[in-house]
Amino acid sequence: MSATLFSEESKDIKPIKIKDGEYIYVPNFYKKELADKYLARLLSDIHWKQESMKMYGKEIPFPRLTAWYGDQDKPYSFSGITLQPHPWSPGLLKVKNDIEPIAGVSFNSVLLNRYRDGSDSISWHTDAEKELGKNPVIASVNFGAERKFQLKHIETKERIDIVLQHGSLLIMQGELQHYWKHQIPKSKRVKEERVNLTFRIIK
Asked: What are the residue boundaries of the Fe2OG dioxygenase domain, all occurrences included (predicted)?
């Protein structure tokens, strides 16, 4: 197996505790060769779409492409839109099975984001929709261009920056979604694509 899936090492992965939350970051969860294969497959096989949201009476397109996959009875609503899931692909199921031993939960859905270059982004937000439950565990798997992931505490404004590498795994858990916003800012220096898979549990 070419993935660094932590047979013995997994017990040594410990959450990084921060004020009002915690996260796990594994920078080289997948080795480059396998990460390259996943990226190519995701770019070619996923049903990508540019969604839009209504703001000030206008339809504003999201600055990225998205897709929603998972169990067929698990739609997802955010930013005024509701996504109906595509059925799991074999590749997405493989990633899901790889990360669940680290996350300690069984995911039933995944939101995919495709950032075509550094001009694509996602602004400050929390993943605190009611269908995600009280303290959601959200696992983010990253392929392609490195992008800066930023956390900002809602009350103290403390900020944490994490560079998400090709093949990395980030898990947000505990009370983090109640107290911390997160974003992927624009970056003029990034010219390559990035695909991000955020696995979730829809209640």
From this structure: 106-203
